[in-house]
Design goal:
The chain is of the alpha+beta class. The protein is built from seven helices and three strands, in the order E-E-H-E-H-H-H-H-H-H. 40% of the residues lie in helices and 14% in strands. The longest helix is centred in the middle third of the chain and has 17 residues. The chain is elongated and about 60 Å long.
Length: 189
């Protein structure tokens, strides 16, 4: 559960929230709509702990994983939409990243002396990856993107604007893409 309790927030002279309260229950889906500058991003930053309210409090229950897709697309350059969505999967994406690093280490001739430790660690990490149902991660990411009308080309298009909205010519994350990142992050933890 996520609770916003009497939060107040101001950016410069602009008041964004005055005694705002809300509760999001497990399994609930909520849309946040408003004009630019209304405080949508600020609200998400408060929920993720990147910012704090001027007044009141934001409480997130233990064990809740929050996916937040930053509007700054600079770090996404050259990456596919599928990769970006998978990175939003919380702990399983970190485990997948470590598996990839260990796989690279296993084929590195300079690491031959460390092979026993690398293989032992790989077994441990692979077990955790299986516990988190990590082998289904890419399929789940593709399922979410397909449900948001992404074509295979849009999903896999690294190095170009892979996350272009089907209805737009702009090369920025679409609300649908942001939603997919948040959706997969609530998956099994």
């Amino acid at each position: 559960m996520i609770r916003l309790e009497n939060i107040g927030k101001q950016n410069g002279h602009q008041i964004l929230f005055i005694e705002a309260s809300a509760t999001l229950l497990k399994g609930e889906r909520v849309g946040l709509v408003g004009p630019n500058g209304a405080g949508k991003t600020t609200l998400f930053r408060m929920i993720t702990g990147q910012e704090h309210p001027d007044e009141g409090q934001v409480a997130v229950d233990r064990g809740v994983t929050i996916g937040y897709f930053n509007q700054d697309v600079g770090e996404m350059s050259g990456r596919s939409a599928v990769s970006e969505v998978m990175d939003g999967a919380g702990p399983v994406s970190a485990v997948a990243s470590e598996l990839k690093q260990l796989e690279d280490a296993m084929v590195d001739p300079d690491r031959a002396d460390d092979m026993e430790e690398i293989i032992e660690r790989y077994g441990e990490v692979q077990g955790r990856f299986e516990e988190l149902d990590g082998y289904a991660l890419e399929g789940r990411a593709r399922e979410i993107l397909a449900g948001l009308s992404f074509t295979q080309e849009m999903m896999d298009g690294a190095g170009k604007c892979a996350w272009r909205s089907p209805a737009s010519s702009s090369c920025a994350p679409t609300p649908c893409f942001s939603t997919s990142r948040a959706t997969i992050s609530t998956w099994k933890a």
